[in-house]
Structures are given as structure tokens and as C-alpha cells.
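Sequence, please.
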């Protein structure tokens, strides 16, 4: 149950259109629903502002659908991340209201348009990084942020980054997604006075070690104001960016 639904329920109780007993019945499963194979956090939207996301790897399509069905009872914009084709096909057949984003390996259940606040810029080094960049961009939009995509700006053509400086300075926070040698966040971090969230991807030749080379490069950046998330973790970067952006809007 998210904050707006709880507020509406309390207002209904105050108006007398819902009895305290009825309200208790609707709240009785908070904060956790035990599905046997999973304990679903129903309280996260109240604490964090967004519902629990379903990380699909390691879960069967049936398990993913079961969790999504429970979350969808009381939440809008429920995310299923790193979804395989089998997971996406199961969601499409489930009867749940949904939007699928195969390129981002992502699904949104009970999608609801949210008026975006502030500005989060998502920058990718190359086209091969787009699945992770799109995971970050769509997640940030679902969390209520205005998002601008700036793609294919790798350091092999530095002029592509420099041409986007005005757009970068307009953002409250910048997510930079890069594989290979992972240099782009350092370049962006040295050009702007905005927080930069660096996302290493697993894209690259053999010595990239599945993204470890990019991760280490980003962790060792000498540019100030850079934070680093895990390899391919577009969702995590978007969640952090959303918190920073909302604080900036309130300031």
C-alpha cells in the first residue's frame, strides 16, 4: 500500500465512509505478505515512496507472477527487473495490466502516469549499454522523475559529450552508464557540478572481465562527486538518483 492509498483510507475513516474495522481489514497484511516461497514487503512504498521491485533472475515465471499479483493488489507502477523472455511472456499472459520493455529487460505492472519532478539525465557511452541505461531511465520515470536521455556519448568521440554540456548542467543528478574502460563518468564528473551516479556495464572485450574493469575505473576516479553502483545495476542507480532529485526539488 502506497502513501496516497493510506492517506485516502484514513480520510475515508475520518469521513465515516469506512469503518475502523474495515480499515483494519485492509491494513492487516502490512507490512509483509507471506507467500510461502517469498515474504513480500508491502510497506516499502510507505517507507521509501515506491513499492518493492521484483528481481526476476533465479525466480520461475510462476513465482514472479505470484509476487506481482500480490503487489498489484495495492500498488501502482510495480517493477519487474532483469526479466527474461520467459518472464515477460508470462506477464503478458497473466491478465495483469502491464507495460513491457524488452530492450530494458523490464516490465511495469499497474502502470500509471506520474508527473515527473526535477530532472535526471541518463547518459550512456555506447549503444551496447542501452539495456542498462533504459532500465535506469524507465525506473526513474516510474519513480516520478523527469528524465532526459543522452545516449552514445562515449569518450572515443569526446566532442559528443561536450556538445551536451547545457543539458547536463540542467539536471539535478546524472546517471552515467558505461562499459569497456568505464571512463565516461570521470569525464562527466569533471565537467559538471552535479552528483554523478556511475553504472559500470558488463560490455567489453576479454580484459573488461565482465564489467570489473569499468567498475574499478569508476571506483578509482579522481573526479569529485562520483558514486558507483554495481555492474549493470541501472535500477539501483535510478533509485538513488530519484532520492537525490527529490531532495533537490524540495530545497
Amino acid at each position: 500500500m502506497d502513501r496516497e492509498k493510506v492517506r485516502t483510507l484514513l480520510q475515508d475513516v475520518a469521513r465515516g465512509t469506512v469503518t475502523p474495522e474495515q480499515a483494519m481489514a485492509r491494513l492487516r497484511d502490512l507490512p509483509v505478505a507471506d507467500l510461502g516461497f517469498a515474504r513480500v514487503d508491502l510497506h516499502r512504498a510507505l517507507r521509501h515512496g515506491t513499492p518493492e521491485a521484483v528481481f526476476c533472475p533465479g525466480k520461475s515465471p510462476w513465482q514472479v507472477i505470484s509476487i506481482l499479483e500480490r503487489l498489484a493488489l495495492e500498488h501502482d507502477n510495480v517493477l519487474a527487473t532483469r526479466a527474461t523472455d520467459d518472464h515477460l511472456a508470462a506477464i503478458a499472459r497473466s491478465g495483469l495490466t502491464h507495460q513491457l520493455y524488452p530492450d530494458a529487460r523490464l516490465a511495469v505492472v499497474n502502470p500509471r502516469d506520474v508527473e515527473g519532478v526535477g530532472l535526471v539525465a541518463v547518459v550512456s557511452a555506447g549503444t551496447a549499454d542501452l539495456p542498462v541505461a533504459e532500465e535506469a531511465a524507465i525506473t526513474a520515470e516510474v519513480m516520478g522523475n523527469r528524465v532526459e536521455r543522452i545516449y552514445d556519448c562515449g569518450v572515443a568521440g569526446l566532442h559528443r559529450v561536450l556538445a551536451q554540456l547545457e543539458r547536463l548542467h540542467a539536471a539535478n543528478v546524472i546517471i552515467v552508464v558505461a562499459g569497456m574502460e568505464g571512463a565516461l563518468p570521470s569525464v562527466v564528473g569533471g565537467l559538471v557540478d552535479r552528483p554523478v551516479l556511475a553504472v559500470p556495464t558488463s560490455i567489453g572485450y576479454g580484459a573488461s572481465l565482465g564489467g570489473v574493469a569499468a567498475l574499478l575505473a569508476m571506483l578509482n576516479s579522481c573526479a569529485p562527486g562520483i558514486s558507483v553502483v554495481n555492474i549493470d545495476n541501472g535500477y539501483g542507480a535510478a533509485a538513488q538518483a530519484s532520492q537525490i532529485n527529490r531532495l533537490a526539488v524540495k530545497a
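The two ends are 27 Å apart (CA to CA).
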